[in-house]
Amino acid sequence: MHEMLVGLEVSNNDVYSQYRAAMMPILVAYGGDFGVDFVVSEVLRSPVNTPINRVFTINFPSQTAADSFFADSQYLKVKAQYFVAAVRHTTIIASYEKSI
């Protein structure tokens, strides 16, 4: 399983919720899912200087499935419509293979 630990600065929670709802069927089609998902109130240490207020893991059956999902034309339309308006910064904290 391929897993990514992601930090975001979400600037519009309503639009971000619309993004999540719109992208979920596409994510599921690639065998993906979210693991843990946190709203963060205070960051004590970070690898970047940009704010982080949301942290989650996103899982795929393989790196290939993840790459295909992020390149999918329908996903890119959803991202352009919602994600860009809702998220100021994205930080990929880690990307790794995880045994089930």
Automatic annotation (TrEMBL):
Pfam families reported for this sequence: DUF1330
InterPro entries: Dimeric_a/b-barrel, DUF1330
Domain DUF1330: 6-94
Name of the molecule in the record: DUF1330 domain-containing protein
Record organism: Motilimonas cestriensis
